[in-house]
Specification:
Oligomer: single chain
Helix content: 40-55%
Largest sheet: 8 strands, mixed
Strand order of the largest sheet: 2-3-1-5-4-9-10-11
Strand content: 15-25%
Structural class: alpha+beta
Shape: flat
Order of helices and strands: HHHEHEEHEEEHEEHHEEEHH
């Protein structure tokens, strides 16, 4: 694929955006200004990558020409071969980054994200695994400078979570986390297992792009809001006030509950954020077949045979079944080093989209 014409298109569009954003009137429409600013940032990086790619091509051509003129066993020839190997690897990496830019970006990729983790098959061990996944995502987010905020949680009596919902704020959050949707399977010896037998448990993960006000309209008459006393840990401030909020969206039947904050108003804001994101997901599903038709299709029923990924602790192995990728660094992955899993999924997604262009 000849990428040079695409690089010039990026440069031309970047110049257009630079001119547009220099006009103060563009900021009269904040949403439009934000969209242009995001595109500007994306293209600025692509133009820089394009310049590096063109330089790598020129340097490759120069070193290949040098290699033809030198004696095969000379020091210069050896240096040229080493430089060619380095430049070929660099060219491949830069070409892949440019190809990501050629494919039209998903409008939700730059969105903040809401992640819902629920214990599946496996009893108390699945709740512990749900907590492990939550910690893994938190570690990954922290390493990338993203912000985590808990929306709601339901702790298990024996540890872990029956359910936890949290938001992640930052750059390209949904772009990277969207591949986590589905059933995650764990194989390990539970702490309560006296015989040392390996058990299999699951947890489901749903990843929702955060909805914005302009994405959809929620009419006041379409929702029913109830408040109640929060339960569980949290001290007097939580347990003795009616701070928990439950919102039912009548047309869809969706019910959202939030009790993480002591303030009823803060819980209401968080619950509305989750509701909007779930409704946006359903809207996207109707418009685009590549998204799941609803949350149940996205995560399945939690049965073991619906898995997208397996975490095998005895073998220090993690396998993503969608792209048949197996890594023997589970200890690092579970500590938040997820790029060796996420980036091959992004590349696979890119290749599938390139086929459709």
């Amino acid at each position: 694929m000849n990428l040079l014409p695409h690089i010039e298109k990026f440069r031309a569009r970047f110049a257009e955006l630079e001119t547009a954003l220099s006009d103060p009137r563009v900021f009269d429409n904040q949403q439009r200004a934000q969209e242009l600013s995001r595109e500007y940032s994306r293209l600025k990086e692509l133009v820089s990558t394009g310049d590096s790619y063109k330089k790598a091509l020129a340097d490759l051509e120069e070193n290949r020409a040098l290699l033809k003129t030198e004696a095969p066993d000379s020091e210069m020839a050896q240096m040229a071969r080493e430089e060619i190997a380095r430049l070929e690897a660099e060219e491949k990496k830069l070409a892949q980054q440019i190809q990501f830019g050629v494919v039209p970006p998903n409008p939700t990729d730059s969105r903040n994200t809401i992640i819902e983790i629920r214990a599946g098959a496996g009893g108390s061990e699945s709740a512990l695994f749900a907590a492990d996944l939550y910690r893994m995502y938190c570690r990954y987010a922290e390493a990338r400078g993203w912000k985590i905020e808990t929306m709601d949680s339901s702790p298990s009596d024996l540890g872990g979570f029956k359910e936890i919902i949290f938001s992640v704020t930052g750059t390209d959050v949904f772009k990277r986390f969207k591949f986590e949707s589905g059933v995650h399977r764990v194989q390990r010896v539970p702490a309560t297992e006296a015989q040392g037998r390996v058990h299999t448990s699951t947890a489901t993960v749903a990843v929702l792009p955060e909805a914005e006000e302009v994405d959809l309209e929620i009419k006041p008459e379409d929702i029913e809001i109830n408040v109640c006393r929060a339960s569980g840990k949290g001290g007097q401030g939580v347990n003795t006030t009616d701070s928990a909020v439950q919102i039912q969206h009548k047309p869809s039947g969706l019910i959202v509950r939030c009790a993480d904050e002591r303030s009823q108003q803060k819980n209401r804001v968080k619950a509305m954020k989750v509701l909007r994101s779930r409704l946006l997901e359903a809207k996207i599903a109707e418009e685009n077949a590549k998204y799941a038709a609803n949350r149940k299709q996205q995560v399945g029923s939690g049965e073991r045979n619906e898995k997208i990924r397996t975490y095998n602790f005895p073998q220090n192995r993690v396998t993503d079944h969608r792209i048949e990728l197996t890594l023997y660094n589970l200890a690092n992955v579970i500590e938040g080093e997820m790029d060796p899993l996420i980036e091959p999924l992004m590349v696979n997604d890119l290749e599938e989209k390139m086929k459709g262009l």
